[in-house]
Amino acid sequence: MADIHGSYDELFTAVPTALAALIDDGDVGGAVAVFVDGEPVVDVWAGFADAGRTRAWERDTIVNVFSVTKTMTALCALVLIDRGRLDPDAPVARYWPEFAAAGKRDVRVRHLLSHTAGLPDWDGPVEELYDWTAATTRLAGQAPQWEPGTAAGYHSLTQGFLVGEVLRRITGRSVGEFFAAEVAGPLGADFQLGLGPEDDSRVALTVPPPGLDEDYAASAPGREAPPTTATALRVRDGNSIAWRRAQIPAASGYGNARSVALVQSLLACGGTVGGVRVLSPEGCERARQVQFAGEDRVLGMQARYGLGYGLFGSALGWGGWGGALVWIDPDERLAMAYVTNQMREPAADNRGIELVMAAQDGVKGLRAT
Length: 369
Hints:
It contains eleven helices and 14 strands. By secondary structure, it is α+β, with helices and mostly antiparallel strands. α1 (14-24) runs antiparallel to α11 (351-368), α2 (69-82) runs parallel beside α5 and α4 packs across α5.
């Protein structure tokens, strides 16, 4: 059985056991954290931080969590809504006048947060993702693919630029700067957008699925997903230094399971964790207000979206390309995060859900005591 490092409450033994099984099954490395009532009950890691299995996964190892980053960007938007500086019902053009071009005058802020704005595809070169002005200018000039608000299509790379530019116009700060000052800093969370060279040695680079190389590209998980002309994102792009340094607020966040669970415990605990209030209880509930329920025309599967989060029954959260996941259950005041450097094919990847189930079993035991 793989060696598990860290600590956990004995009621949650199923979580580290499940992580060990994943490493035994061939995964390179990973970490899981479970917070209940804003406090860690599981904080474990195992395996290696490199494909060659020469560097052990350490307590402070960080990894690109890809689309789990969206929940961090959404949290920043919720903070501004809470403070009365951002109106989810306002036209995006109120904050970003250039965005009104090409028939987007009536696109609302809530459309950006719920994947209903009609701008799902990044069709520019990958290199342009690293240039904030170029990326947002491109998106401002695009016409929506459908009437905004009438359908949903996962805005895989574009959502972060769209929401992020609105935040920048309001605050004068990038998403990474705002998140560091208003969320990660006060909570003491080791999560960043726009990673500096001083943290490169801590990064566990992404490992493609078994049998595939770094040209492996992201794709929609649903069987009914339609063909797309969007620019393909490859593992080698996500592993590049340019990606690491850039702020791509839908996909380039770096952290560990502990930091993701800590930050998203805010949504599980009414906006306050460790005595630090970041959101109001009303702001937390706002995230769970259903904006869309039905077939996602990009993913080719059923989806329910709140303000910036996927909705799953009474829980909320989101997953990232390659396997990362954050799961938030406000009814149980639980937040669970899983991060890994080992990709698997999306259709065959149940790792995150298996860990959620293990965490839920632990909560049941905890509440029964």
